[in-house]
Amino acid sequence: MNVRQGFKMAAKSIFSNKVRSFLTMLGIIIGVAAVVIMVSVVQGQNQKIKENFEKMGTNKISVSAFRYNMQDLTQDLYDFCLSLKELILGVTPNGGYYGPVKYMTKSTEANQQYGMSQTYLGSDQYSLCNNYTVEYGRDICWLDIKNYNQVVVLGASLKEFLFDYKNPIGEKITIGGQKFEVVGVYEAKGSEQNWYMDYMCVVPYSMNRMLNKQSMFSEFSVKAKSSEATTEAITRLTGFLSGRITNENGYFNVWSENTWMEQSDEQNRMMSLVLGGIAGISLLVGGIGIMNIMLVTVRERTREIGIRKAIGGTRKSILIQFLIEAAVICGTGGILGILLGYLGTLVAGKLILDIVLFPGVPMTLGAFGFSVILGISFGMYPAVKASGLQPVEALRAE
Amino acid sequence: MDLIDLKDAYKIYNEGYENEVRALSGVSLQVQRGEFLSIVGASGSGKSTLMNILGCLDIPTYGTYHLDGQDVGELTDRQLSKIRNKEVGFVFQGFHLIQALNAYENVELPLIYQGISGIKRREMVMEALERVKLTDRAHHKPSEMSGGQQQRVAIARAISTKPAIIMADEPTGALDSRTGEHVMEILMGLNGEGTTVILITHNTELAGACNRLIRISDGVIVEDSLREGVAT
User: What is the pLDDT of residue B231?
Assistant: First the structure.
C-alpha cells in the first residue's frame, strides 16, 4: 500500500465519522489557534514597542548631569562629547523652553487637544540625534547658533496647528515673547502613542540665554555610530562625569534606549515563551484526545483490521494507515486552527494593539508541522496496537 | 507435490491451564491442486480452526504445515501476509466486508496490498465483479446491498487476486437457499477452472456437491472420503 492510498483511506475513514472526527479535531483547532493568537499578539506588541524605540532613534545616548557649579561643566561636557568623534555621529545639547508658541491669533495655550507645546534648544545635529528629517525648508545650521539667528524648525503637528495648509516658511512666530522665523518643517513621525514627538519645535541652543535667561545645559543627546559604539561611549561618558560629579556636589545619569530595548525584548521573549507554553499545554491535551479517539477507533475497527490482515494487509500497512489517519486529523485540525488563529489575531490585534496584525509565516508553518508531529506521536501507540493484532482474534471481534 | 500438506497438527488454547481447550488433536491432511473439498462437522468440532490454519490466519501449536512446498511455521509475519494475499482467497459466513468502503473498493483492497497499479487494478476489479455479476452495484456500500449480493462481493474480493485456494467458511450460512445455490454455482465454476476450493460447512447437502468430504469431530478427522459421481 502506498502513501497516496493511505491518505485516501484516511480521508474515507474521517468522512465516514464526520461528527466524531470534527470533535477530535476541535482540541487541535483550539490549541493551534491559541498558540498562533497568543504568540502573534506578543510579537505584535514587541514590534510596536520596537517601532516606537526606532522612532525615538536607536543608538541614542542621553546624558543628564547637574552640578552646583554647572557653568564650566556644560562646555566641558559638550567638548568631551565632541571629542568622541570616532564613536559618534552627532551631539546636541538638549535644552527646553516651556511656554506658549503663537502665530497671528493662534496660540498653543489655546490648543484643546494637546495643550502647550515643547520648544527644544538644540544644535545643528539635533535632528540627527533625535531621528528627525526635514520635510521642507532647511534645518538649523551652525551659523544660526553662532550668529544668534532667531530661527525655528517646526514639528509636523505644531505646523499643522499653527498654519493648517499654509506654507510656513518665512513666517514669523512668537516663542516666549520673541519673534522667530520659520525656516523648516520636520517630517511627521506619526506615532499616536508618542504624539508629543511631532508637537514641538527646535530653535538654536544659543537662544537659551534669551529664552531661559541662562547658558547652562544639563542634558545632552549623543548619537552613536553603532550599538557597540553606544556601549563604549556610555562607558567613556560615565568615566568622564564620575571624575567631575560626586554625590556631594550633584548627580549624573548616562543611558541609552538600546538598554531599554534589550530589556523589553527580553521581557517579550519571556512573555512569548510563557503564553506559548500555556497554549502548548492545550495542544498537548488535544493530542491526548487524539490518542484516546484513535484507541477507541482501533477497538471499534478490530474486525476491519482482521479483514485487512486476512486479505494480505501487512503489519506495516496497517501501522501506516492508522498513523496517516491520525496525522491527517491533526494536520486538518492544524490548518483549521491556523485559519481561526489568523482571524483571532486580526481581531485581537485590532482590539488590544490597534494595529493590523498577521501571524508570521515561520510560526504558521511551525504550528502546522507541530500539529502533524503531534498526530503522529499520539497516533503511534494506537497504530502499533492495531498492527500487532492477530488476524484470527481480530476477525472474531464483534 | 501436495498443495496442502498438514501433518499431525494440534491447536491447543491455554495449554497447561485449567481452561485448556484442544481445538485440533493431531490432524493430518493432504490436498491436491484442483480439489473441491468440504470439511464438515458440528459446531465446535474444530473445523473453523482447521480452516484458519490452512488459510495461514493462524499457526498450529504443534505439527507442521506446508503450503505449496513452503513450511508455514518458518515464515515471518510479512511473508504470511503475502501468502494470504496471493495464494488464498477467503469467503466468510458473515461476509466480512469493510462497511466504509463500497463494493468496488472492497474488491480492490487485496490488489492495493499487492501493489498493483491503477489501470491494471481497475481491470482486475471489474473482471472479478463481472464474474459475480455485480458490476452494476460497484459503487454501493455493503449496507445498501442484500446478503447474497454482499457474499458475491466477498467472493469477488477473494478471486480478484486469482489465488490458488479459495477458503469458504459457511458461505451460504447467512443466505436463503436460492441465493445459497447461486453462491455454490460460482464456487463450482471456479473449481471447474482449476482453483482449489475448501468449503467449511455443517450442511451435508452442500458438502454433497464436493468431490471429497472430510468429517471432523472433537478436533480429529473421523472421515475422509471421495464422493461418487462427482467429477474431479
Answer: 44
Give the confidence band of A398 by pLDDT, cuts at 50, 70, 90: low
Q: What amino acid is encoded at A59 in this protein?
A: N
Give the residue from B47, B57, B166 with the most A CB atoms within 10 Å of its CB, the best one to mutate: B57
Nine-digit cell string for A219: 542634558
Residues 6+ apart with CB under 8 A from B32: B2, B3, B196
Sheet holding B220-226, edge to edge: B88-91, B165-169, B196-201, B36-40, B212-217, B220-226
Nearest CA among B189, B167, B149, B142 for reference residue B48: B167
The Cα–Cα gap between A289 and A26 comes to 9
The verdict on a CB contact (< 8 Å) between A314 and B77 is yes
How far, CA to CA in Å, does A222 sit from each of A129, A130, A203, A234, B31?
6, 9, 18, 10, 101
Residue A67: left if φ>0, alpha if ψ -120 to 50, beta else—which one? beta
Host H or E run for residue B183: helix B177-192
Q: Which one of B112, B169, B170 would you mutate to disrupt binding with A, by most A Cβ within 10 Å of its Cβ?
A: B112
Convert the pLDDT of each residue in A137-162 to its tens digit.
Answer: 999 999 999 999 999 999 999 999 99
Does residue A131 carry a pLDDT above 50?
Answer: yes
Domain ranges of chain A: 3-52+263-396, 95-216
| Pair B170, B93: CB distance under 8 Å | yes
CB B87 within 8 A of CB B70: no
For B152-193, the pLDDT digits (tens) are 899 999 999 989 999 998 888 777 888 888 888 888 888 988
Helix B103-114 and helix B147-159, axial crossing angle in degrees, nearest 10: 20
User: Which residues from chain B sit within 8 angstroms of residue A13, using beta carbons?
Assistant: 100
pLDDT score for B228: 61
The DSSP secondary structure of B97-161, one letter per residue, reads --TTS-HHHHHHHHHHHHT--HHHHHHHHHHHHHHTT-GGGTT--GGGS-HHHHHHHHHHHHHTT
Q: How far is B173 from chain A (nearest CA, A)?
A: 17
Secondary structure class of B95 (helix, strand, coil): coil
Task: Enumerate the β-bridge partners of residue A134.
Answer: A186
What are the counts of helices (DSSP H) followed by strands (DSSP E) for chain B?
Answer: 7, 10
Residue B82: helix, strand or coil by DSSP? helix
3-class secondary structure, A227:
helix
Identity of the residue numbered A358: F
Residue A278 dihedral angles phi and psi, to the nearest 5°: -60, -45
What is chain B's length?
232
Instruction: Determine, for residues A307 and B97 on separate chains, whether the beta-carbon distance falls below 8 Å.
Output: yes
Residue B232 pLDDT greater than 60, yes or no: no
Q: What b/e readout covers B167-191, taking b as 16+ CB neighbours within 10 angstroms?
A: bbbbbbbbbeeebbebbbebbeebb
Coil, helix or strand for A243?
coil
Which residues of A fall within a CB distance of 8 Å from B125? none
Q: What is the C-alpha R_g of chain A?
A: 33
Q: Are A306 and A393 in contact (CB under 8 A)?
A: yes
Can you tell me the distance from the alpha carbon of A390 to that of A308, in angstroms, rounded to the nearest whole number? 11
